[in-house]
């Protein structure tokens, strides 16, 4: 049996940009992606602490060291610059493996810095 469990989390990052006129996705600083064990194209859930919105999209690599967290396309309507969000990815794994799996959780500092 496979179950879906928390794989990675960027806890309380700040939206730095919202770009409505882009095809879609979330752009994330590549340093943050590496720290949280996230890859380009990976499906993520974004939980907005300011307004309660929960959306799903996929990741695009952002400029390394920029602190960029940018919602693109329709997702840009779900947050404004300055909102604090949690970015979560999940993985499917065997039930027994899931019992011992340790997710990667990152708590960035102000400015979305590690």
UniProtKB/TrEMBL annotation:
<dbReference type="GO" id="GO:0004068">
    <property type="term" value="F:aspartate 1-decarboxylase activity"/>
</dbReference>
<comment type="function">
    <text>Catalyzes the pyruvoyl-dependent decarboxylation of aspartate to produce beta-alanine.</text>
</comment>
<keyword id="KW-0068">Autocatalytic cleavage</keyword>
<keyword id="KW-0670">Pyruvate</keyword>
<dbReference type="InterPro" id="IPR009010">
    <property type="entry name" value="Asp_de-COase-like_dom_sf"/>
</dbReference>
<dbReference type="InterPro" id="IPR003190">
    <property type="entry name" value="Asp_decarbox"/>
</dbReference>
<keyword id="KW-0456">Lyase</keyword>
<feature type="active site" description="Proton donor">
    <location>
        <position position="58"/>
    </location>
</feature>
<feature type="binding site">
    <location>
        <begin position="73"/>
        <end position="75"/>
    </location>
    <ligand>
        <name>substrate</name>
    </ligand>
</feature>
<keyword id="KW-0210">Decarboxylase</keyword>
<comment type="subunit">
    <text>Heterooctamer of four alpha and four beta subunits.</text>
</comment>
<keyword id="KW-0865">Zymogen</keyword>
<dbReference type="Pfam" id="PF02261">
    <property type="entry name" value="Asp_decarbox"/>
</dbReference>
<keyword id="KW-0566">Pantothenate biosynthesis</keyword>
<feature type="modified residue" description="Pyruvic acid (Ser)">
    <location>
        <position position="25"/>
    </location>
</feature>
<feature type="active site" description="Schiff-base intermediate with substrate; via pyruvic acid">
    <location>
        <position position="25"/>
    </location>
</feature>
<keyword id="KW-0963">Cytoplasm</keyword>
<comment type="pathway">
    <text>Cofactor biosynthesis; (R)-pantothenate biosynthesis; beta-alanine from L-aspartate: step 1/1.</text>
</comment>
<feature type="binding site">
    <location>
        <position position="57"/>
    </location>
    <ligand>
        <name>substrate</name>
    </ligand>
</feature>
<comment type="similarity">
    <text>Belongs to the PanD family.</text>
</comment>
<dbReference type="GO" id="GO:0006523">
    <property type="term" value="P:alanine biosynthetic process"/>
</dbReference>
<dbReference type="GO" id="GO:0015940">
    <property type="term" value="P:pantothenate biosynthetic process"/>
</dbReference>
<keyword id="KW-0704">Schiff base</keyword>
<protein>
    <recommendedName>
        <fullName>Aspartate 1-decarboxylase</fullName>
        <ecNumber>4.1.1.11</ecNumber>
    </recommendedName>
</protein>
<dbReference type="GO" id="GO:0005829">
    <property type="term" value="C:cytosol"/>
</dbReference>
């Amino acid at each position: 049996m496979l179950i879906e469990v928390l794989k990675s989390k960027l806890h309380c990052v700040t939206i730095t940009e919202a770009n409505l006129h882009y095809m879609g996705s979330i752009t994330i600083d590549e340093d943050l992606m590496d720290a949280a064990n996230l890859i380009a194209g990976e499906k993520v859930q974004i939980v907005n602490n300011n307004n309660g919105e929960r959306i799903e999209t996929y990741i695009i690599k952002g400029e390394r060291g920029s602190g960029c967290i940018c919602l693109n396309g329709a997702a840009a309507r779900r947050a404004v610059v300055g909102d604090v969000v949690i970015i979560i990815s999940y993985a499917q794994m065997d039930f027994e493996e899931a019992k011992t799996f340790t997710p990667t959780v990152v708590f960035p500092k102000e400015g979305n810095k590690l």
